Recover the amino acids of this structure.
């Protein structure tokens, strides 16, 4: 048994993708897991998978946008297992397209799910941690979109930058009067069923920016933080682009927006506009992976090469500016 054995872990968004893989990873360690998602039937299937791996599971159907319901999740978890040791705010989705083409209500719902859903989860569990010895681990699954602004996903980045700020602020605040640990995980594009559940107003099928990370890799990062908490875990090679953006945000931002405009809106198969699963549950398999990134890899490689070239040019330009400044 691992270090998380017999600890109680709550995972939101646990019926697919990163959340399901995270629940399964904790189950392999013998943890007691509370699985939270909107679809009760899919949750039961996810719980059965976790039980087969050795975990003791409690599926709880709940929407993270409902703050009172999240408080009830805490009460149900405590009633079943005594207390909560680890809470993973994972539930979320994405939204792609030109900002002005996306209905305002859809932007608002995305922020409600991705940002306020995390606020609701944290607000529900922090009092429980404080009442039970002032210890516990809160892990927020953020995104590279919380570190690197992404054109064609403006409200998604707004939500994820908000989660990043919440994570850092809450970490400092709770450290001043408790032993509660607050951690952030920042995955790059992940191979999950997100392509069929994200909001998409690009006019094309959604395609990830390579290299695509496996959900099992993100889950392993979450489990490692539960065992040995630390401030931040970055997952995926695309985080190198944040260095180029820090050096020349205007150049990198414009170049990425042009490349992204071609990649997300000008290439790929035509697709109807959709809100995905933002407003309602959409049927789909209980699966960690979604095969995202397999088709149309040529365009993906071109985009990756363009981003790499932009990053390299930025570094060269920054170095030249630094040498000129040093000679003055």
């Amino acid at each position: 048994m691992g270090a998380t054995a017999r600890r109680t872990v709550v995972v939101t968004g646990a019926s697919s993708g990163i959340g399901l893989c995270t629940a399964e990873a904790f189950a392999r360690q013998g943890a007691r897991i509370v699985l939270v998602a909107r679809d009760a039937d899919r949750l039961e299937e996810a719980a059965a998978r976790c039980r087969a791996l050795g975990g003791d599971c409690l599926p709880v159907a709940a929407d993270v946008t409902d703050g009172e319901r999240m408080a009830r999740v805490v009460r149900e978890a405590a009633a079943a297992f005594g207390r909560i040791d680890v809470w993973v705010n994972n539930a979320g989705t994405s939204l792609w397209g030109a900002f002005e083409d996306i209905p305002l209500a859809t932007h608002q719902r995305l922020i409600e799910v991705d940002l306020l859903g995390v606020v609701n989860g944290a607000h529900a569990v922090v009092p429980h941690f404080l009442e039970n010895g002032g210890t516990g681990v809160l892990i927020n699954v953020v995104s590279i979109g919380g570190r690197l602004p992404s054109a064609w996903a403006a409200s998604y980045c707004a939500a994820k930058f908000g989660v990043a700020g919440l994570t850092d602020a809450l970490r400092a605040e709770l450290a001043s009067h408790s032993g509660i640990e607050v951690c952030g995980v920042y995955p790059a594009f992940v191979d999950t069923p997100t392509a069929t559940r994200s909001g998409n107003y690009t006019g094309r099928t959604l395609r990830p920016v390579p290299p695509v990370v496996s959900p099992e890799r993100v889950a392993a990062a979450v489990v490692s933080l539960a065992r040995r908490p630390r401030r931040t875990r970055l997952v995926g090679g695309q985080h190198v682009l944040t260095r180029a953006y820090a050096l020349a945000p205007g150049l990198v931002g414009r170049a990425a927006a042009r490349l992204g405009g071609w990649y997300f809106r000008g290439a790929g198969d035509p697709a109807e506009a959709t809100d995905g699963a933002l407003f309602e549950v959409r049927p789909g398999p209980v699966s960690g992976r979604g095969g995202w990134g397999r088709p149309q890899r040529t365009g993906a490689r071109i985009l990756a090469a363009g981003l790499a070239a932009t990053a390299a040019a930025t570094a060269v330009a920054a170095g030249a500016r630094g040498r000129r400044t040093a000679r003055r």
Notes: The beta strands are 8-12, 32-37, 56-61, 86-89, 95-97, 135-141, 179-187, 199-201, 232-235.
